[in-house]
Amino acid sequence: MQRRTMIFAGFAFAATTSLGGCGFRPLLSETEGDSVRSQLAAVRIKGLGGRLGQQLRTSLEDNLDPTSSAEPARYDLVIRLRNTNSALAIQLDNTITRYNLALNAGFELRRRDDQQVLYRSSVRRVASYNVRRAPFATLTAKKDAQRRAAQEVADDIRTLLALHFQRRTNAT
Known about the structure:
The chain is α+β, with helices and mostly antiparallel strands.
């Protein structure tokens, strides 16, 4: 048992020391000048309405600026959201027992000064939910699937924006 622990510790030490040599640097680290974190905090979200849009907006705001900093807005994030439900499991009597909820978000990052598009992409996430005999249980499952899909889309958008800002920082 002790031998396994020592082997694992040696492997972990070798892995972490080799990362420093390859130029690995955390994406959201604070560096001199304009950090990725401060650029993410300078993004304001536009174009979301409805319950699902508000869930996505809330998740994105928490992801982009978790500390609620007073960073002035320099970018607008315009999002077009589309969701679809499709039957996933159908029984022999044509009763649907499971749905896939697909959430598609096309987005553009624009500079606030002149509305020039700096980055454009899209994200798609699928969350499933079961259909129950009780309508309230089905509604609750559907809302939970929407919440999960919105959170995953927000995480993906944040990651794509962070990579975009990191590439811009490295290019200059």
